[in-house]
Specification:
- With 369 residues, this protein is of the alpha/beta class.
- The protein is built from 13 helices and 15 strands.
- It has two domains: 182 residues, Rossmann fold, CATH 3.40.50; 168 residues, NAD(P)-binding Rossmann-like Domain (Rossmann fold, 3-Layer(aba) Sandwich), CATH 3.40.50.720.
- It is globular and about 65 Å long.
Amino acid sequence: MRIGVPKEIKVQEYRVGAQPAGVREFVRAGHEVLVETGAGGGSGFRDDDFAQAGATIVGDAADAWSADMVIKVKEPIASEYSYFRKDLILYTYLHLAAVPELTKALLESQVKGVAYETITDGSGGLPLLRPMSEIAGRMSVQVGAASLQKEHGGKGILLGGVPGTRRGRVTIIGGGVVGTAAARIAIGMGAHVTVLDLSADRMTYLEDIFGNLIETLHSNPENIEESVRRSDLVVGGVLIPGGAAPKLVSRKLISEMEPGSVVADVAVDQGGCIETCRPTTHDDPTYEVDGVVHYCVANMPGAVPRTSTYALTNATLRYALDLAREGVEVCARQNTNLANGINTYAGACTVAGVAEAHGLDFTPLDRLL
């Protein structure tokens, strides 16, 4: 199979869909790999590194997209839709519930869209979402702490405080991978940390690992409202696999926070769990609503591409090799976990959450195979 690795063109996206070690694995398995020139530069990989691993370096994106399977990091943007064609395998983060235009383009062109974020493992986890969620969770507190500084529009609070002053109050909505990673950093900074979640088992787990350094609350409207109002930093870390994130923090509630407070919505690439959230970029990461600073960058891990690329490609390579060896259809029949990653196939939407988000017909994948 011919495998294409184009350069990411989303604003300040420096990750790349494959690293040289992965290219070597593909070539060893008998595949041809086409890497767009400069694709790995942001992550510290030179064209020569890919060439020495056995890749062919191609001069432009069209050449990389001409492959049988294209491996990316972020969902394609509008200028890349023209590369879509029937039977192309697109293996990347898609987050289709938040991008109706991309969903439409994939369906119309009959691309086989395999999304990292809906591939599962034997325990029902999301192994390809986890590494980026770990990074985004950690970063959410880092950027939140910086945004609280007065020169960045914040109220001028140091999360850890100093003797004789109060510590910053951090509320994390969602106690999953993002929330746990965010809590770890917030606790390390010395903040007062509250995590809200629906699962009693998850809250027990968080208290087991963090002890009395954390407060857990059941995620209901009353607790969310009370916690958000008094917080200096709110982190949104809610996930509905394949679907749009629920709006748990209303515009009214945002207006009731102290001016200079900060919200960082890690769920922004799934539509966000904060009503006032809209996607931003690393070029212009924040904006204010009712005096509250919003950090809503949709590709947060792109700011630390060296770490992110290694973490991501270590996880994605296994499934990519399966897809290259067997093709989508055989993989889907043999591996239910990988089949869960197929979001579009033969012009049909095969994930219920995406179909519901856009008012589309949902077609179970096994009906199409």
